[in-house]
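A reminder from the course coordinator: this example appears on the midterm review sheet, so study it carefully.

Given structure:
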């Protein structure tokens, strides 16, 4: 047997001892690591729960155990910031900078910490250091600017970006950030300039620039400044159609319609649109209700571009503008009655002539159909030429029977016959519309209502009352038709329980009004007003008589009758309408600003919960402004 020497046995013992020592150290380290892990988890839980002081203690202990662990140091700094222990916070930042070097993120945190500590000079030095690390880096300037914005140092943020623009030598860089900052500072001229710079760099920003610039405040000074910038960029970029388009739209928004027209003429030439840009301008002006400018623009288009494929649209637009202008009081409220009447007749004739031209030139087109429909509208509602209106509407039905205008024309023909007193013929056309469905459901409901009005005029009140309730249950609520039905139901409920004869007289008067026999209707109403005493329908009769006087141009008499209603029937549901009508007659017909203001003010005092409050306040505001700007309109014109 081999004998082992003593040194070998000693060596063996040494290795066994070393193994046990290594195992023990390893176990101790594992225990330490476990404790650190548990303490880290606990610190995070405390931080999430908002117990920052206890979390801070644990993070400091962890950092002492593992000073090379930057995560613990970072969390300590975060908690110190949240606890507003700014001085201690700066100490940890300085320590991190010594270990990690001039890191932009740490430098930014340093600047923030010193600014919050109240040491603004040190914060500014740090921002300068960030920039000097890489004077050609857009990122560094943006970083500094963002922190300055965070402290609402908007002028500093602007100056930082402008310095960057100069150092980097890119005149359009930072346009996005600067545009926002200038808006915050309410320097809309420079904000507009930067948005235009954005478009120069990337045309895809055009829609954003257009939307924002058009959302600037409408103050005259702002408008003038932005207009200057737009005109300048258009002059400097003569071949840029987007800038010309932006300027043209800005002119429209700010009611510079003559400048807008001239700009659209240039734009049309730039993009070789063969007049279509001018037509677009005319359509926009029509939609916002500037009919005189629309008339001029459509006329120019037709004269300059007679071969354009859209002349039918322009001719129809011209006719619509003429039609709208002859009863839009914006154009007639300063005219004497005789001049106003002549103006309306002239434009009415021109509108009809244009519509007739469309029907003869543009056969078998949607323009022809719409022109015939508009002719019907003018002849029915403006001229009360029932035969002429029926002829035009029938043509629409023939040309386009299944269209919206076709079904509307069927409804209107029924109305024409009803207004002419032929209730049987009217019912025939209303009945045709019971077949209309789908997207024409609203027209069908209106026809059903008009059938009931036929029965109403025939004085079949009980049947009408029951059928109205059934119809009301079928139609969508909160629209004009449902309101009409509900109003008629309430009217019948109020008056059917009393003597029926005054109701019959009132309905006869209503039918006479519909047939434009105003004098007969007024005489019938007055005869009953003097005899029915306190019948529930008495206030309705007085109101209707006043309305007839208004329609006949006897405005002062209408005011007196409305006032009679207010004095005689203090609980009438018509008081609000009577009061606002009086004010409106003073304002719009008699052009007496002072009495109109007094009546609107009286309305506001008396009817504090009226649905007309917003409308009355707006009218009163405009009148007071008009009185201030043009004192000559305070009395009678």
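Designed residues:
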């Amino acid at each position: 047997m081999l004998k082992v020497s003593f040194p070998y046995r000693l060596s063996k013992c040494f290795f066994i001892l070393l193994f046990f020592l290594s195992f023990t150290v390893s176990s101790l380290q594992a225990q330490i690591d476990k404790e650190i892990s548990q303490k880290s988890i606990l610190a995070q839980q405390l931080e999430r729960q908002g117990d920052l002081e206890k979390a801070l203690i644990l993070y400091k202990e962890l950092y002492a155990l593992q000073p090379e662990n930057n995560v613990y140091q970072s969390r300590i700094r975060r908690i110190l910031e949240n606890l507003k222990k700014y001085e201690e916070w700066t100490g940890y930042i300085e320590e991190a900078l010594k270990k990690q070097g001039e890191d932009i993120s740490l430098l930014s945190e340093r600047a923030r910490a010193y600014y919050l500590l109240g040491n603004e000079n040190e914060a500014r030095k740090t921002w300068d250091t960030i920039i000097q690390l890489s004077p050609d880096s857009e990122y560094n300037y943006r970083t500094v600017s963002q922190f300055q914005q965070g402290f609402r140092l908007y002028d500093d943020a602007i100056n930082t970006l402008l310095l960057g623009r100069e150092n980097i030598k890119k005149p359009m860089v930072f346009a996005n950030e600067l545009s926002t900052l200038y808006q915050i500072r309410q320097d809309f001229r420079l904000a507009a300039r930067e948005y235009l710079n954005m478009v120069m760099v990337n045309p895809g920003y055009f829609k954003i620039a257009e939307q924002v610039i058009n959302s600037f405040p409408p103050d005259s000074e702002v408008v003038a400044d932005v207009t200057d910038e737009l005109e300048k960029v258009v002059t400097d970029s003569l071949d840029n159609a987007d800038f010309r388009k932006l300027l043209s739209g800005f002119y429209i928004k700010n009611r510079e319609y003559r400048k807008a027209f001239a700009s659209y003429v240039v734009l049309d030439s730039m993009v070789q649109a063969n007049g279509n840009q001018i037509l677009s301008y005319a359509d926009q002006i029509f939609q916002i209700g500037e009919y005189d400018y629309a008339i001029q623009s459509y006329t120019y288009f037709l004269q300059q571009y007679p071969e354009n494929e859209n002349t039918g649209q322009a001719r129809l637009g011209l006719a619509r503008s003429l039609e709208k202008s002859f009863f839009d009081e914006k154009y007639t409220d300063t005219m004497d009655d005789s001049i106003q009447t002549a103006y309306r007749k002239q434009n009415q004739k021109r509108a009809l002539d244009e519509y007739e031209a469309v029907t003869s030139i543009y056969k078998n087109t949607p323009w022809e159909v719409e022109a015939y429909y508009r002719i019907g509208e003018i002849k029915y509602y403006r001229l009360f030429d029932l035969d002429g209106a029926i002829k035009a509407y029938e043509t629409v039905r023939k040309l386009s029977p299944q269209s919206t205008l076709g079904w509307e024309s069927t409804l209107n023909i029924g109305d024409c016959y009803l207004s002419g007193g032929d209730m049987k013929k009217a019912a025939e056309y209303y009945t045709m519309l019971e077949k209309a469905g789908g997207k024409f459901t609203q027209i069908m409901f209106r026809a059903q209502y008009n059938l009931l009005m036929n029965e109403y005029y025939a004085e079949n009140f009980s049947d009408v009352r029951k059928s109205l309730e059934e119809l009301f249950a079928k139609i969508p609520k909160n629209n004009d038709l449902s309101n009409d039905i509900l109003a008629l139901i309430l009217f019948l409920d109020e008056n059917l329980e009393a003597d029926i004869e005054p109701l019959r007289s009132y309905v006869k008067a209503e039918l006479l009004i519909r047939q434009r026999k105003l004098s007969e209707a007024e005489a019938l109403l007055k005869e009953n007003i003097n005899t029915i005493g306190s019948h529930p329908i008495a206030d309705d009769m007085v109101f209707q008589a006043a309305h007839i006087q208004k329609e006949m141009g006897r405005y002062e008499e209408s005011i007196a009758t409305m006032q009679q209603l207010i004095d005689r029937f203090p609980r009438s549901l018509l008081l609000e309408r009577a009061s606002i009508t009086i004010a409106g007659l003073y304002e719009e017909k008699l052009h007496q600003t002072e009495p109109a203001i007094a009546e609107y003010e009286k309305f506001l005092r008396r009817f504090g919960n009226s649905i007309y409050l917003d409308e009355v306040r707006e009218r009163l505001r405009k009148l007071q402004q008009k009185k201030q700007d043009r004192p000559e309109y305070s009395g009678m014109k």
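The CA atoms of residues 576 and 607 lie 7 Å apart. Confidence is low (pLDDT under 50) at residues 633-637.
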